[in-house]
């Protein structure tokens, strides 16, 4: 593919590389995008999803890999952004077909010669990362801990969201605790469940919704309220998107009644202009690229930078200070939080010299 053949969105997002292949074993279309390697090898998860078309998958991989560049830069990690998506069937794949697909993905990553490292995302697991790593050594983060990886990153992601939420609650609601706040969480999956438990334990009035109604009893068992109502239209102090991306479109931005939106779901904005619409309505949106960075910080710190758990947690908790900086910058300059996040990347603060990933390395 030469440059003039590229879809407009590739130029728009300024990617370094897009590789679209049909897996020779699986026959499944795989797209790997490398947005940037200017800070170091690109990193970003591997998503298996029944996309309706290859075009939809390519648009997703371009958007998601660009967001990973922002996420890595905001988290001060020595990496750029990349992503893998595969267009899987709507019904579950048999184990053999699935393994062939994972091997095809491993080979595609291997062809990039170390410029991109993957990790788990929707539809993939630490065990899949182990298979990728066996086929393409160094090609995947988050293998199971028993196999030398850092394992499932959900707890670290939830910890990071909590740091972001606490900082944003201080900024928006001038509260030093979540106690008594009405917090709606959309998505009771790995991250949403851990976050809800931590918020409820600290006295927040947590309300959950999830399309999977079978999770209802699990929430109620934990003393967490469940609703089938649309949380976007509920009176809330904080709305937490913890399900899939694209929740915040033009209609949602108009309907949203929470003053603060902060959560881990990737690509929450259906388009970048929604951030401005939320701001006009007095709603503070914390960019998902910082709120959801805990998992990637954990993986890189533990697997690559040899940080212990204490140092890794300190680094995840530092998401709070970064969020305060972004929100303050947005208010001071009357710009959106996404624009403020870009400004914060352009003007990084010195990080402690003991942090080997400091952007101010001598
Ligand atoms: N797990 C991580 O470490 C991590 C890291 C960064 C970002 N994220 C992002 O955070 C989000 C949640 O991650 P997770 O690991 O908890 O995912 P998960 O798949 O475990 O949980 C997602 C939950 O959302 C529910 N859901 C899906 N669509 C919904 C809808 N329209 N309304 C309500 N509920 C819906 C699902 O039923 C599921 O219970 C995802 O967008 C993910 O990409 C996760």
Features:
42% helix; Rossmann fold; disordered N terminus; six-stranded parallel sheet; Glu/Leu/Phe/Val/Trp_DH_dimer; 12 strands; NAD(P)-bd_dom_sf; alpha/beta; 14 helices; binds nicotinamide-adenine-dinucleotide; six-stranded mixed sheet; globular; disordered C terminus; 362 residues; NAD; 2 domains
What features would you describe in this structure?
With 362 residues, the chain is an alpha/beta fold. It folds into 2 domains: 3-147, Leucine Dehydrogenase, chain A, domain 1 (Rossmann fold), CATH 3.40.50.10860; 154-293 and 320-346, Rossmann fold. 42% of the residues lie in helices and 13% in strands. The protein contains 14 helices and 12 strands. It has helices at residues 8-13, 54-74, 95-110, 126-135, 154-173, 190-201, 216-221, 250-255, 274-280, 288-291, 294-303, 309-317, 319-333, 337-346, and strands at 17-22, 29-34, 42-43, 46-49, 80-87, 116-117, 182-186, 205-209, 225-226, 238-241, 260-261, 284-285. Strands 1, 2, 3, 4, 5 and 6 form a 6-stranded mixed beta sheet that branches. It has a 6-stranded parallel beta sheet with strand order 9-8-7-10-11-12, sandwiched between helices. Strand 11, helix 9 (274-280) and strand 12 form a beta-alpha-beta unit. The longest helix is centred in the first third of the chain and has 21 residues, at 54-74. It is globular, with a radius of gyration of 20 Å. The model is unreliable at 1-5 and 353-362 (pLDDT under 50). The structure holds nicotinamide-adenine-dinucleotide. The site of nicotinamide-adenine-dinucleotide has 25 residues, from helix 5 and helix 6.
């Amino acid at each position: 593919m030469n440059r003039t053949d590229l879809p407009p969105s590739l130029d728009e997002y300024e990617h370094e590389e897009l590789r679209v292949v049909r897996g020779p074993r699986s026959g499944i279309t795989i797209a790997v995008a490398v947005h940037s390697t200017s800070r170091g090898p690109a990193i970003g998860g591997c998503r298996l999803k029944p996309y309706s078309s290859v075009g939809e998958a390519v648009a997703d991989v371009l958007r998601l890999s660009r967001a990973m560049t922002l996420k890595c830069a905001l988290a001060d990690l020595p990496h750029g952004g990349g992503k893998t998506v595969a267009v899987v069937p709507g019904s579950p794949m048999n184990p053999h077909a699935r393994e062939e697909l994972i091997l095809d993905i491993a080979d595609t990553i291997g062809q990039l010669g170390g410029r991109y490292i993957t990790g788990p995302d929707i539809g993939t697991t630490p065990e899949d990362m182990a298979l990728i790593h066996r086929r393409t050594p160094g090609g995947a983060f988050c293998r199971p801990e028993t196999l030398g990886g850092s394992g499932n990153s959900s707890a670290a992601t939830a910890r990071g969201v909590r740091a972001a939420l606490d900082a944003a609650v201080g900024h928006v609601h001038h509260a030093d605790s979540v106690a008594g706040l009405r917090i709606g969480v959309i998505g009771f999956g790995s991250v949403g469940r851990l976050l809800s438990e931590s918020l409820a334990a600290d006295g927040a009035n947590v309300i959950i919704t999830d399309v999977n109604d079978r999770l209802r009893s699990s929430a109620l068992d934990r003393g967490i309220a469940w609703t089938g109502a649309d949380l976007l239209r509920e009176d809330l102090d904080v709305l937490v998107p913890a399900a899939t991306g694209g929740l915040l479109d033009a209609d949602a931005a108009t309907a949203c009644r929470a003053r603060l939106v902060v959560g881990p779901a990737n690509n929450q904005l259906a388009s970048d202009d929604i951030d401005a619409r939320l701001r006009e309505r007095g709603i503070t949106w914390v960019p998902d690229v910082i709120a959801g960075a805990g998992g990637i910080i954990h993986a890189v710190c533990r697997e690559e930078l040899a940080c212990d758990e204490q140092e890794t947690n300190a680094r995840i908790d530092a998401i709070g200070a970064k969020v305060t900086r972004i929100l303050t910058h947005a208010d001071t300059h009357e710009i959106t939080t996404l624009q403020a996040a870009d400004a914060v990347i352009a003007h990084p603060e010195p990080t402690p010299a003991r942090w080997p990933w400091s952007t101010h390395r001598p």
